[in-house]
Each structure stands twice: as C-alpha cells, then as structure tokens.
Amino acid sequence: MNPQVALLALGALVLATALLGMALRRREGRAKHVDMRDRVDPRLVGADAWGERATLLQFSTEFCARCPGVHRTLDAIADDTDGVIHLDVDLTHRVDLAKHFSVLQTPTTLILDRNGVIQTRFGGPVARAVVEQEIHRVTGDRHVSV
Question: What is the pTM of this model?
Fold first, then answer.
C-alpha cells in the first residue's frame, strides 16, 4: 500500500473517531424524555418503595470515576426536595439490570414518577439545575428553581 494513502486513511479514521466522540459528549447530561407505560417494581433494584413524588435512580459501577460526583449531586437534590429519594445501584455484578434498563454507560440516571414509571433518562454526569427542572416537570410542580 502506498504510504500516502495509508496516512490519508489513518487521518480520516482519526477525524471520524474525533467527530463521533464529540457528538457523543454533546449528548451527555441532557434529559431524554422517555415514553414508557410500564411500572418498575422497586424490588427489582433492591428497594422497598419509590419516593412519594419521584425517585432518582442512578446506575453506577465500582470503576466509574464520575459516579461519586453524580451521587453527591443527586443525594443533595433528594435531601432538598420533599418526597424525592435517591437510589444508587451498582451494576458491577448486576449485568441483568444493565440489560433490563439498557444501561450502556455509567453513570446513567433515571427519574421515575411516584408510580415507578420512568419519565426521564440521563447519560453521563448531570447538572443539578437540569435534574431539578426535570423533577418539577415529572411531579407537576409549577415552581422551577434553576
């Protein structure tokens, strides 16, 4: 193979990979509204019940560098918001749950309504203001504190 063609092919591959990486990064932390009708049983993730108004369900792994920061953010939101709880599920040894909830990256955060229906999905780190706004949308609260 001609060295110039090989270098051009390599350059094109690097460029395509960089563009794909940037596109995926842009999607992280954005709310994706989910249209599901099925209720999730809290026992599936080791909980007794969902929050009175909403539940922040975080999926993490032992090796996730960004998960502890997301955990602290979601804990703070749950502590500051009546009727909202935060559950953190470690998927390291629960591949079944990763498949069930289609988790392809950690952290992944789901917002469930009080009935256990998934309303919103976040992939990657999340901003507190965005999560709070989604909680208000899910609970029907008209006050949006962002």
Answer: 0.75
